[in-house]
Amino acid sequence: METTSALEKVLRGVALTLVVLFFMFPIVWIFLMSFQTNETILSIPPSVIFTPTLENYQALITGKLQTASGTLDIAFMKNLLNSVFLSVSSVAIALVLGVPAAYAFARHKFRGSEDIAFTLLSFRFAPPLLVLLPLTQYFQWMGLSNTYIGLIWVYQLICLPLILWIVRGYFEDISADVEYAYRIAGHSWFATFRKIALPLAGPGIAAAGLLAFIFAWNNFVFALVLASADKQPVTVGALAFVTASGIQYGQIAAAIVLSITPTLALALYAQRYLVEGLSLGAVKG
Amino acid sequence: MATVAKAARSGSGFKISKRALPYVLSLPALLVCIGILIPFFTAVVYSFQRYRLSQPYARKWNWGENYLTFLTDPGFWNTLKVSLSYAVITVGLELLLGLGIALLLQRRSTINNFVSIMLLLPLMTAPALAALMWKLMTNPGFGILSYLLSLVGIDNFRWASSPDTALLTVVLVDIWVYTPFIMILLLAGLRSLPTQPFEAAALDGVPRSFVFFRITLPMLTPYILTATLFRLLDSIQQFDIIYAMTQGGPGDTLTVFQVEAYLNFFQSTNVGRSAALMIILWAITYTLSNVFIKHWLRLRERARGEA
Amino acid sequence: MTTLQLQNIVKRYKSQVVLDNLSLDVADGETLVLFGPSGAGKTVLLRLVAGVIEPDEGRVIIGGEDMTDVDAEHRGIGMAFQNFALFPHMSAFDNIASPLTATRSSKEAIVAGVGKVAKLLKIDHVLSHHPKALSNGQKQRTALARALVGSPPVLLLDDPLRNVDAKLRFEMRLELPRLLAAQGATVVYVTQDYKEAMALGDRIAVMAKGRIRQIGTPEDIYNAPADIEIARLFGDPTINLLDVTPKAAGAGIDVELSGVKVALPHLPASLAGRSLVIGIRPETLHFVEAGTPGAIPVEVEAETPLNEKTVTLVRVSGGREVLVSRPAGTPGPVAGTAHIAVDGATTFLFDKETGQRVAAAGQSAKTQGAAA
């Protein structure tokens, strides 16, 4: 339907190359950096050809950093474990709480249901520090400051609206008649929920869970305000690590690679659902 | 038959009344979130108090004083200016770039699909970590970007550590992370447009610039509006990138709302001012989000309708 | 004894009244057809009986027991949906077996039960398929099998033939009465197709705008329609409707059609002078030789075959168009002028304002006799 001239083809090719270069270069560069010694990193001009070393990863994984002034303990692996634990637990709880609620919002238009659903949605857009700063004081009174429970609770602010709105859309896509048919066949609402609604919305629930995991993992401000070193996830931990280690650039790069790999891998795995998830169900991919 | 039904009913163990069921299902999620509403009201209270963590004994109501001082406080006007500039510049550039890339990738082909998936990666990188990545690349000593600039004759470009270029640097990181968001929304929009108007225009030999401005853009407007509002809402609250990159510095160059509130709370321990700043930011985002939700709902209904 | 009674049912959605104080009795083993245009409230009514939606007012009584507040799963009802509503993630076997698994039947009983009904509906060869892999006809039979398998005392069929092709619809219309009779269940059957209604119903309830306009045997509805709308809905080709103002003639009345007097001796003289509409079914009109008493001259406009009939469009003097039908293959008029005759006893009169049929008490029986 459109005629493409040779010139246009070339221009498109150039533009596409520039786009890929701009968006991919930082990831590739940091990845390369993580396999370099500090000497290689600091050499000018920067070398693309170098002998890769695993010593940065070694240092991170063993938690012992050899510096000129002696051995430094680094808690980065602890941060990584914190990230895994916080994200997995937050998503698990958000699924347990959010999926039934999403089902209620999708199937039963009860009094106030829309208002409640929108209130939950609005949490997604409120400035997090607005509640976080007073929350630090409440958490102190309640003994929740610097606890996993406190953090997981606050992480619901990210995970719940996401799961609620995406999964609700998937439940709405199931024909009500299919569920009616199962009820009429003699099954309770709970059996219908378990045997019909859950399996049919299954892919959507999985996608929402993965997305919620990514957002929980990537969160920075909650843990920055509410957690101290031993409970911090990688996002905050990496920043602290930069400040602490100063010039150990290779290890910093390796820490970044370890921190972003899980979310990037999940994103590639779930890419089919990301468009819908990112727009909270407003756009289908 | 009647007796069978009766027996079956009494046999079912726990029974929740039909009317109560939806409430029972959604109550746990609600309870978890209600806990979050309490600090919100606390923040409102704090914003009307003179409250410093360093002088807790001097805490008292000062009513609108926190807000009134803002009028003559250059720090506040700087915060407002930086926040708005940051939001407008990032979203404006991301919109142009995102639309351009979406148009570039519109045709479904293996390479285009591959590129659009690759572009998800920056978006899925934690913004705080993305800032660290760029910090490594813009290091004046060994950063690759500083080196590349020196090749074209720009020496001593100081990136985030100079007040002149700090905004540019964080904007660059924001663009790197969030342009793909606008891109994939617009790409989904472009690919869902009906093909007939374009085929008709091609048959009639209508110039492509005309097609773009008179057909593509108007039909894409709902997507553009939703993506823009969504990003504006996030961008005006940006914290992660700026804090991880410069902690608001150098000086007060990048003290956007959330960074300023954070520093007020934890460094100057001025809780009252911090809360007042957050309430103002909340008022801005609340207004924006109401507009946003209207557009978002329209798109969502359309997407559901196609399902 | 499983009778079904609906008492004063009201159902509203927002401010719209979908079912308006509706009452209905269905006898044990009876097949009642709910007939009406879309939006009449038929499907809502069925769901209300099934228990998946609740009435705002009124009671649902099944087998003499008030089931209004009883959950759907405890009502002992089988239902087939217009869109089939098969479980997409289960095989046809599991779909059909779902009412049996609910009662915790033994595995052998389930296999036997499903096998029997599948054989009856000729789908035993596709039981392992998922709905996606079934043809429309197989889906429809699977849905029907699922409704029948538990031998429910009450069976609700929501336009089950709507979404299948014409050939299958015809086959099923022949098969269904036998199937339903074999089940012995009390059946409520929803359809928009009047022929289906006539073929399957022991009685037909004609619904419109949330109310039952008329209820009776198919013959009742056809031969004594309660109003113009029902007369128009039942009958193919559609009934001829012409404005008339009757004159008294002895105990009965006369109407004038194209200058020819037609006697309606069965209708009371009190109707004389009122503005009425006469309804004449096309099959009650006959072509006659010119000069026959009561013959009305017409111009033949067009002729078209309709199933086993031939339909002729003619124009009477004054320009009004009338449809005449006769069994296909019987001789008819050639183009040009012809004559038709009306048997006054088989016509209906409706009030022009309200559309209601006007008739003295006990009138319908007499009309019925005349038609038979």
Question: Can you characterise this structure?
Answer:
The complex is a heterotrimer of chains A (285), B (307) and C (372). Chain A has 285 residues and is mainly α. Helices cover 74% and strands 3% of the residues of chain A. Chain A contains 13 helices and 2 strands, in the order H-H-H-E-E-H-H-H-H-H-H-H-H-H-H. A two-stranded antiparallel sheet of chain A has the order 1-2. In chain A, a hairpin with a 2-residue loop joins strand 1 and strand 2 (70-73). The model of chain A has no long low-confidence stretch (mean pLDDT 87). Chain B is mainly α and 307 residues long. Chain B has a domain at 67-124 and 172-306: MetI-like (MetI-like fold, Orthogonal Bundle). Chain B is 73% helix and 1% strand. In chain B, helix 7 (127-137) crosses helix 9. The model of chain B is unreliable at 1-14 (pLDDT under 50). Chain C is α+β, with helices and mostly antiparallel strands and 372 residues long. Chain C folds into 2 domains: 4-226, 3-Layer(aba) Sandwich (Rossmann fold), CATH 3.40.50.300; 233-371, Nucleic acid-binding proteins (OB fold (Dihydrolipoamide Acetyltransferase, E2P)), CATH 2.40.50. Chain C is built from 9 helices and 21 strands. Chain C has helices at 42-50, 92-102, 107-120, 136-148, 166-183, 194-200, 218-223, 228-233, 363-371; strands at residues 4-13, 16-26, 31-35, 57-62, 65-66, 77-80, 154-158, 186-191, 203-208, 211-216, 240-244, 247-249, 252-257, 260-264, 276-280, 285-288, 296-306, 309-316, 321-327, 336-342, 348-351. A 6-stranded mixed sheet of chain C has the order 6-7-8-3-9-10, with helices on both faces. A 5-stranded antiparallel sheet of chain C has the order 16-20-17-18-19, with no helix packed on it. In chain C, strands 2-1-4-5 form a 4-stranded antiparallel sheet, covered by helices on one side. Chain C is elongated and about 75 Å long. Chains in contact: A-B, A-C, B-C. At the A-B interface, helix 1, helix 4, helix 5, helix 6 and helix 7 of A face helix 2, helix 4, helix 5, helix 6 and helix 7 of B.
